[in-house]
Amino acid sequence: MVRRVSFIPVIIKSKAPPHPVRSNATVQEIVDFVDPDSVLSHVQRLQDFVSRYSTFDSCFAAANWIAEKFNDYGCDSIFIQNHTVGHAPNVIGVKRGQVHPDSIYVVVCGHFDATSDQAPWIAPGADDNASGTAMAIEAARIMQNYDFEYSIRFIGFSGEEWGLYGSDYYAQGARLHGDSILAVFNADMIGYADIVPETVEVIAKIDGPACGPLADFFIAAADTYTTLLTHKVMTPWMPYSDHAPFWDYGYQALCNIEDFPVMNPYYHLTSDTIGAGYNDNDFCTEVIKAHVAALSLKAVPYDVGVSEYTDDKQLDPVLKISPTVAHFYVQIMLPTSKGKSVDIYDASGALVRSFNCAAVQSDGIRWYGDDNTGQMVPAGVYFVRVATQQETQTAKVILVK
Ligand SMILES: [Zn+2]
Distance, CA 1 to ligand 1 centroid (Å)? Predict the structure, then answer.
C-alpha cells in the first residue's frame, strides 16, 4: 500500500459554530461603540488620497495611513506585506488572543485599492472600497479596549482591482504556514443604497469549503445585535473580491456587498465619492456593527478572573500534588467525562497554561510549572481549572521554589 505524505497542512472540516441566539451583554456593548461619525471619517480620509490606484504613489501613502491607524488603535503588531512588485502592500494589524496561539485567528478585511475611468490619477473609491476598509479600521478602533481568546487580524488588501493580487498572496501564505483561520469576513462595497432600507448580500460558498453555516452564524449575529437586513446568497463560485482566495485555500469566508450584481451607478468612476457612490453611511455603520458582533463572538470575549469551586457532585476529586526529590510537578487527575479542558491561572486571573486533553492517559496530566511559552512561572498562588461539558472545578495550588 502506498500512502502519500504531504507536509502542507490539511484543513479539517470545522464544526458548525453555535448560533448567537441569546444576547451577550459584552458583545452588545462592543457593537454599540461602532460610531457613524467615526466610520464616515475613515471613508473621507481614504477618499482624500484622491487616487488609491494600486500602483500609484498615493496608494502607498494610504497603506501607511492604515498601518498608523492600526497602531493607534492598539494592535499588538502590524505587518506591511509586499506581494507584487510595484504595488502598494497589504496592511495587517494583529490583535493577539489571550488564550490561543497566533496562528489561530479571525480575519476582518476589505481592499483599499481603487480604480476608475481616470485611473491612475483619480480613483477615490469611497464605496469601492473605502467602505470595507473602514470596517477593518473601525473594528480595530472598537476592539482595542477588549480582550479576546483568539487573535484577530484586521487587514487592508491591495492589488484587488488587478485580480486579487494581495489577498491571493496572503491566503496562499496562510495555507502554507498552516494558519488556522476561524473565519474570514470580507466587505467590498457596503456604502451605497439603491433602495432604503438597503439589504446586505451575505455571499457564501456552497461547498469546498462549505460556508453556509458561517453565513447562518453571521446572519444570526446581525439579527441579534443590529437592525441590519441580510440576504443570504449561496453560490458555487463568486471570484470578484478578496474572500475568493481564502475559499481557494480551504478557508471559510464570507463576502458582504450592498448589491450583487452591482447596482451602484458610480461604480469604478471618479464620482464614487461621499454623497454619490457612497450615499448611506447609516447602512455602512450597521454592516460594520454586524461584523463586529460576528468577530467578537468568533474571537470569544476573554473574561479575566477565575471561577470559584462550583459543584463536586458529578466530578471525582481531580487534583493531586505529587512532589518528588529532584523534580516537582502537579498531578492532575481527570474526570472520565468527555470534553475536558485544563487551564491554569495565576492569582490575577491571567491564563498561564492550557492543556489539550483530547488524548490523555488514564493517570491524568502533569504540570511542571511552565507556562504556554515554556517559561517557568514564578512561585505563588495558582488556580487549576478542570472543565467538562457539564461543569467546572477549580482548585488552588501554591508553588514554592
Ligand atoms: Zn471592490
Answer: 49
